[in-house]
């Protein structure tokens, strides 16, 4: 069975600084997707970034980028130039290609300090 | 177009009562999912709908939980004889097909006293 582990329950970052959130996963599949979702206090889960396992290039979306290490089964999220609006719970998720079931980690609460 | 909507936003009920939670997916999305998010936990998969059928109910925690989807659109999650451990945020998501990105609603926070 697939698992997703987020070992940092809470992280803090100074505004305008860079922070990295960790995620590791376990799977025997070779083709899958990985996601980072943001959940602000409004509870609405918002997709931040998505990575296809077959792609070697790390995904980037503006200030958000990932470090995808397939052999190590690691998928960390880097947030550059942190903003107050980045404060939220961040969830890492896994989905085997061709299936629908997302496996979520337990989340990391990110605090942004002014 | 409009995103996924859920109602009510918050629900407080007494132990033993039945509750119904509603999800309106994005128009045209054939796949619909229910998740439960307990305090300090990630999202726990409950059930998946493709159209009106539910090929995967494996995540429903007990027979007190049931769900239906009508007209390939609105879905209702029903919890009978609620227990305090049912207190959680219930999130609904929909996707164009089962292999596309899931879009989430804002959730219903259920509190069982």
Task: Summarize the topology.
The complex is a heterodimer of chains A (114) and B (113).
Chain A: E1 3-5, E2 10-14, E3 19-21, E4 24-26, E5 32-39, E6 46-52, E7 60-61, E8 64-69, E9 74-79, E10 88-96, E11 103-104, E12 108-113
Parallel strand pairs in A: 2-12
Antiparallel strand pairs in A: 1-4, 3-9, 5-6, 5-10, 7-8, 8-9, 10-11, 10-12
Chain B: E1 5-7, E2 10-13, E3 19-24, E4 31-37, E5 43-50, E6 53-56, E7 65-69, E8 75-79, E9 88-95, E10 103-104, E11 108-112
CATH architecture of chain A: Sandwich
- CATH class term of chain A: Mainly Beta
Supply the CATH class of chain B.
Mainly Beta
Q: What is the share of helical residues of chain B?
A: under 10%
In CATH, the topology of chain B is named Immunoglobulin-like
Order of helices and strands of chain B: EEEEEEEEEEE
| Rg result of chain A | 14 Å
Describe the structure in your own words:
Chain A is globular and about 40 Å long. Chain A has 114 residues and is an all-beta fold. In chain A, a hairpin with a 2-residue loop joins strand 7 (60-61) and strand 8. In chain A, 0% of the residues lie in helices and 53% in strands. Chain B is mostly beta strands and 113 residues long. The mean pLDDT of chain B is 92. The chains are: A mainly beta (114), B mainly beta (113). The interface between A and B is medium-sized, with 23 and 22 residues.
State the main characteristics.
heterodimer, A: 114 residues, Immunoglobulin-like, 6-stranded mixed β-sheet, 0% helix, globular, B: mainly beta, 7-stranded mixed β-sheet, 11 strands
